[in-house]
Amino acid sequence: MLRLYLCSVYYSFNTKITAPEVRRMSQKEGLRANSFQFTLEGEPFRILGGSIHYFRVPRAYWEDRLLKMRACGVNTLTTYVPWNLHEPERGVFNFQDQLDLNWLLRDKNMKLRTTYPGFTEAVNSFFDKLIPIIKPLQFKEGGPIIAVQVENEYGSYAKDEHYMPYIKEALLSRGTNELLLTSDNREGLKCGGVDGVLKTVNLQRLAYGTIQYLAYMQPQKPLLVMEYWSGWFDVWSESHHVFPAEDMLAVVSQILEPGVSINLYMFHGGTSFGFMNGAVANLGTYKPQVGSYDYDAPLSEAGDYTTKYQLLRNLFSQFHSEKLPEVPSLQARRVYEPVIIQQHLSLWESLQFTEKSEEPVNMENLPVNSNNGQSYGYTLYETTISRGGLLNSKKNVKDRALVFVDRHFVGVLDYKSVEFALPDGKGERTLSLLVENCGRVNYGKALDDQRKGLVGDIVLNHVPLKDFTIYCLDMKPNFLKSQWNSVPQKPSFPGFFQGMLYVDGHPRDTFIRLPGWSKGVVFINGQNLGRHWSIGPQKTLYLPGPWLKSGNNQIIVFEEQKADDKLVFVENPDHGKTIDVYKYPFCVLL
């Protein structure tokens, strides 16, 4: 994971800069950390930063979000450049994911974030493509990039003492010449750094002396809270995390008072569209995240101003000698008429043969996508059984399986429930397991254990099942090839449901709500909006106006178990029940 720091003081968000202009703008001296204070071009510089992930924001709204950040007094923005190497046939990297190196997991011996040869080979391929792109955009070349982060929170992983020096050298040798940083929480500071690189810290509360600890570890250096967590992300079946604006502002003020620099993570969270929500594994418990990355940030998921934004704007204005820019207007929203479901396609009618195998094959090792494996979505495994009894996953279902006998639903196996009794029956019957990749863990020690699908034996009465027919259901654009049918009175599940949204005039942002539905995925004009799940907390899906068109828009819902006859639209999001992360700090323990 590479994080870039862009200085908005020297870069106009609404101006395209050509290569000759960049050369003429070349500055003498970039960001320096040679004393207690940062300097930029030799002058004192306080970082008032904000994080935004462009891959979580529709491209049409990039400028809007950046102008809103600048109007708040943010002078530096940070963003990740994703390491997404899961589809080499489309190029060496693909800017769609914060961190998902799943195609590398085809190697059963892979050790991510180490100097394991298979991983460093991928790193070098990535840097060989990426660094030539960002090199002319560095500050010393006249561009806006003032710093580059070597890795992110490596102290939480730290399996290889040679890895961080390797990444540092890989950056320097390719021409990265701006200030290098690392970023860790308090515990990670002990082993997440690398010689010659400035350490920074991540936190939300000041109760543990974290900043003082950073100063002790790194004397006579400027202090930067690299990730000041303005809120927190959400996981399915729990509450929406909020951080009251007044409590947040009090901590930010305390951080800034002694001259510490700050970067708000997130300033604008956006949306993890598609299957890119990810997961966490706190204390060994797997928890898939929701698609909304609202984060209770100063700018909401849809780019709205919040109380946090207004309070921060008032505070940050005190650190600027000139008046801040005017606040841009908000994007208009629209509540469309409900979409009536008109067509249906059973999952069983949409299957396309993939593979036969005596043993289960995990998703990443399926011979699909030019033999690069399956990255996301669902995988269906079918075999023949001749009796009922105790079905046990041996914790080899990653992450959740709907179980069917002769295509009738009989139960669920997942990261919580590992066994149940299959009903008895006569003769041979088809056992089907529809396994969903609910999201890969992107933090901590579990990174190497993120293969999905069936990753080992499933046993019936203690006997491993054999001879599987396997179907890839990654649900990429145009994945449905079968003929749609009218919706029957009792549609079969799982299934696909289609309706048309008619947009009269210019399309506007909206939110989709699915009352009466259970769990699945929503697609609009071929774009994967993300998962819906009635257990919450997320109750709505953000639908950006630029993803719509005037006239008819196709909406497809993949539904696992229960459907209504329509979809409805609302003006504002519903994040479900809330919990205060400041009162209950266990929510942010890593």
From TrEMBL:
The active site is at E153, E227. Its EC number is 3.2.1.23. Residues 37-101, 103-318 form the Glycoside hydrolase 35 catalytic domain. Gene3D superfamilies: Galactose-binding domain-like (2.60.120.260), Glycosidases (3.20.20.80). The keyword Phosphoprotein does not apply. PANTHER family: BETA-GALACTOSIDASE RELATED. Belongs to the glycosyl hydrolase 35 family. This is Beta-galactosidase. It comes from Oncorhynchus tshawytscha (Chinook salmon). The lineage of its organism: Eukaryota, Metazoa, Chordata, Craniata, Vertebrata.
